[in-house]
Amino acid sequence: MSIDAAEVGQIAHLARLDIGPEDAESHAHNLSGILAFVEQLSAVDTEGVQPLAHPLEMTQRLRPDEVNETNQREAFQSLAPATRDGHYLVPRVIE
Amino acid sequence: MEWEAVIGLELHAQLATNTKIFSGASTAYGAEANTQACAVDLGMPGVLPVLNEKAVRYAVRLGLALDAQVAGRSVFARKNYFYPDLPKGYQISQYEIPVVGPGHLDIDLDDGSRKRIGVTRAHLEEDAGKSLHDGFGTMSGIDLNRAGTPLLEIVSEPDLRSAREAVAYMKKMHSLVRYLGICDGNMQEGSFRCDANVSVRPVGQSEFGTRSELKNLNSFRFVERAINFEIERQIELIEEGGAVIQETRLFDPDRGETRSMRGKEAANDYRYFPDPDLLPLEITPALIDQVREELPELPDARRSRFVTDYGLPDYDAGVVTASREMADYFEAVVSGCGDAKLAANWVMGELAGALNRAGLDIADSPVSAETLAGLLRRISDETISGKIAKEVFEAIWAGEGDADAIIEARGLKQVTDSSAIEAMVDEVIAANPEQLEQYRAGKTKLMGFFVGQVMKASAGKANPQQVNQILKQRLDG
Predict the structure, then answer these.
(1) pLDDT value at residue B263
(2) Residue span of the signal peptide, if any (chain A) (predicted)?
(3) Which domain holds residue B440?
(4) Are B252 and B259 in contact, with CB atoms under 8 Å apart?
């Protein structure tokens, strides 16, 4: 399996990465190499093996439904570039 | 050409837990912005989501109520997309293995028949925050209190064939989640939301047409209007030689139309993968049994019981079991007055009408079930007639006290003394010789006139059965 420069552009767009056309070819080459390496796994016979969702052979622990978090808005918002009236501010996103 | 609509709904029910699905932050509605968004909800580095047990139990409840398969093992996945109210850049959801597998829900159609609607799946996921576009100048404001609130997304099969059916299904599911106590169903606050997938095809064709996905349907009325508009739009488009494109469309309630949300399609590549922060969710048969024990009586079972135990017509039973609150209220009235049919008539009639006019839910009724039962007892024991009871009901509604107090204060006790009624009847007959003559000449429908006159003379207090009986004797004699 390999990918081309156009697919690199598509993935970059979805990941909001600014990759110019001049770099797309080399990324396509490198990513294709990684995929080829991983593809060796296809040689293994997985007939009857359950798909693995997690490497740990454990199941999810559950938490009781009790409030144990307090308001730390001040601390969190001191890290934000812009806030107003308790809201985080971002460039306007309405369509 | 004859067209047929094919509709499937995706319903989002916010689960009525105290805390978020993956954190211990409160989910209480209406708090000041961002005061209930903790480090996990904000996606801070190094945090680890831990699943809320209550959310899991609630999902199992729905699964059992839909007669669905509850997955012994299900997996959480990351759904990747960028939006400012999604702090992590992904939503934790379930993809390949949802917690609830195929099930079904029966709905009542307008013609009185029943239809079984398939439920494909229901999965657990977290809600996003809210973006506010007004009041922040050239910026948008983000409130992340809602981020991480547990949602159950319930996906139907494309089994619905009209907007009416879609609304019937949505109402039934709305009623069910409230019966189960897993969602408060408050649509104004966004606790119960709907997206609709709509396509059309010529009648008789088995393949589906291209569908559009409708969003922003936050009331039953909007769902019906949006789907009807969309069906018409697609039929017109195809008949004019065009083709429906698969896209997301937003319903605009002010204009009553759906609008394309351009640019949304390209982003529909969510690159799901299993979330490495969360282990597979195991639901043991023991837990399922435990949840089954906790299940309340479900709406359909309750409806059948009302028909069997109380002798209600199926239609009435359906109306009074439409919500758990209404059914509880009705049963309290029955146990207080002992007459189920009378109770059903009053709960569905006077009470429902008054609540409707006042825009109140039955849970907020100013007339309690005990008070209404007190009024109905006075009808049953013939202290007052049904007509006077309506007057008493209005007084109770207005806060003037209970039925006995009002009957006493207003002197509304029914006249059952035969001699008193006979006197009134004689007076009325004497005062209307013309009508008497016509009556005796064969115009017997004047009976109604005489009854009305006597009731008027008694200020509505004469026992109607006795009035009828005595009048008939006198007129015919």
Answers:
(1) 54
(2) none
(3) 418-476
(4) yes
| pLDDT at residue B55 is higher than 60 | yes
Query: Which CATH number applies to A5-43?
Result: 1.10.20.60
What is the ipTM score, two decimals? 0.90
In chain A, residues with a C-beta closer than 8 Å to the C-beta of B56 are: 62
- Shared domain for B27 and B165, answered yes or no, is yes
- The pLDDT tens digits for A34-81 are 999 999 999 999 999 888 878 888 899 999 999 999 999 999 999 999
DSSP-assigned beta bridge partners for residue B198 = B7, B212
| Amino acid at the residue B417 | D
B109 and B253 together in one domain? yes
What residues of B are in contact with residue A9 (Cβ under 8 Å)? Answer: none
The answer to whether A89 contacts B19, with C-beta atoms less than 8 Å apart, is no
- What's the per-residue H, E or C state across B264-309? CCCCCCCCCEECCCCCCEECCHHHHHHHHHHCCCCHHHHHHHHHHH
Quick one: pLDDT band at residue B386, thresholds 50, 70, 90? confident
Other beta carbons less than 10 A from residue B181's beta carbon = 14
Query: Which residue in A14, A18, A60 has the most chain B C-beta atoms within 10 A of its own C-beta, making it the best mutation to test that interface?
Result: A60
Contact A53 B84 (CB under 8 A): no
Boundary of a domain, candidates B391, B410, B429 = B410
Last residue of a domain, one of B378, B410, B442: B410
How confident is the model at residue B266, as a pLDDT? 54
Please judge whether A73 and B35 are an interchain contact, meaning their C-beta atoms are less than 8 angstroms apart. Answer: yes
| Shared-domain flag, residues B146 and B255 | yes
